[in-house]
Amino acid sequence: MAITSEPRAASDSSGVDPDGADRPDVPGIVARVRATYDSGRTRPMEWRLEQLDGLVRMLTREEERFTAALATDLGKPSIEGYLADVKATINEIKDVRKHAPKWAKPRKVSLPMASKPAKGSVRPEPLGVALVIAPWNYPIQLLLNPMAAAVAAGNAVVAKPSELAPATSAALAELLPRYVDPEAIVVVEGDASVSTDLLAQRYDHIFFTGSTRVGQIVMEAAARHLTPVTLELGGKSPALVDDSADIEVTGRRLAWGKWLNAGQTCVAPDYVLVTERHRDALVESMRAAFAEFSGGDTRGTPDYSRIVTQRHATRLEGLLADHGGAVAIGGEADPETRYVEPTVVIDPELDSGLMSEEIFGPILPVITVDSMDAAVDFVNDRDKPLALYVFGEDDEVVESLVERTTAGGTCVNHVILHLTPSTLPFGGVGASGMGRYHGQSGFDAFSNLRAVMKKPSNPDAKLAYPPYTSMKERILRRLA
Ligand code: NAD
Question: Could you read off the pLDDT of 275-330 as tens digits, one per residue?
């Protein structure tokens, strides 16, 4: 089942459902999905594995449809669309499919002497109906990975893709019902108003990926029903470049982090902290990297994405217009064609938009600091980031920088890649989110980890029952 509220054109970024026509019957949809869950259909492992197989089959067979949709929505080069959205999702789902039968089994735990004789276990059981709300930047991965985790854990799912990636949203809504159980896994298309309708319903888990601002709205809505949430949010992810770093490689990797999807990646490096000693060499290394990536024609190369909407491109143009720093690389923005050049700005004012908002585009401020101690203070004075990157060859310094800061995740000497292995739990901390997923952490996020203790009826020592004689009390105190 795929329910659609007329998707808007890619360039229309008003965020408003134009006429309210074709609005999905949200309460009816959620009630139907709940009825499916209540029927017990989603619980058997066989059903769960069939759905995961269906998702992999869909992504494999429909690869071209999906990469074309990503190109329409974001101008994504097809290799980036394939690797970062289609293949990354296939890999994650295959891993979940392989391990789900084991993760779903009761997990034996040891019990203390005082509890014996008894057996203890943790039994993962499905939570019920999960709502998954996704953003537009990796619109396949960020909808299907949580969906796969929810299904593997035996839940039914209502999923809302982002209206700002309308071609991908439409492809998902059209194709999913052909590959997975349409009574238990339902896509509802639409904008923020549909999201609001969805959030008015009761779920057993809400998994939201998007901005911190909307994350707050989601959490408030969830609180009404005491629904647990996983919030995968954004924020400013810093990169600390120690003097011991390999500056050439560091520059290339940072440049790649901003080039990929034109910087519209939740864990893209948002700004760089470096001492004056290596700052200019770092900027030169980034210049060389961008020139190499673009072949000298950033606008013309098919290997560089566009900004999702004119509104977002205008927002980025605004950030470039007023920052008080020095533009060292790039600087061109053309909202009409949704093009923003990879740009490096040295030392923008700290209260400028560039340094107070999440950039979410191909602009990289480089901030000069006196030392890595100052860099640590700078980072710790701000919201806890989703990702924090450390570049350096001196292991002791690197370890100390990791230890003295915090973040949802960290990659040393590279960017973004820590989110790819399913064995590394992915998520934020503080303002960048709560909860984890990927691999088993995703399975557990959508499970009730039920604690079960099994006691034999005999022996049934009278010791623990009243009346509490002084002798019983003495023994109980010793045993407790
Ligand atoms: P967004 O918060 O604007 O939208 C995300 C989803 O929420 C969309 O489906 C949208 O329709 C819905 N929505 C928008 N306004 C709403 C409202 N008022 N009430 C209810 N629902 C609403 O985010 P976005 O612009 O799609 O994505 C960019 C943000 O997402 C960035 O901050 C980025 O860092 C973050 N992000 C985080 C991760 C992560 O894994 N932590 C991944 C990708 C993006």
Answer: 999 999 999 999 999 999 999 999 999 999 999 999 999 999 999 999 999 999 99
The helix (H) or strand (E) run that includes residue 452 is strand 447-454
Q: pTM of whole model > 0.90? A: yes
Residues 6+ apart with CB under 8 A from 38: none
Active site residue 266: yes
Lowest mean pLDDT among 1-10, 133-142, 217-226, 468-477: 1-10
Q: Is 423 exposed, middle or buried (0-12, 13-18, 19+ CB in 10 A)?
A: exposed
Q: Tell me the CA–centroid distance for residue 164 and ligand 1, in Å.
A: 10
**Per-residue pLDDT band at 113 (split at 50, 70, 90):** confident
Q: Judge whether 232 counts as a catalytic residue.
A: yes
Nearest of 17, 214, 42 to residue 128 by alpha carbon = 42
Backbone angle region of 278, left / alpha / beta, with phi > 0 → left and psi within -120 to 50 → alpha: alpha
Pocket lining: 360 vs ligand 1, CB cutoff 6 Å: yes
- The owner of tokens 């710790």 is 380
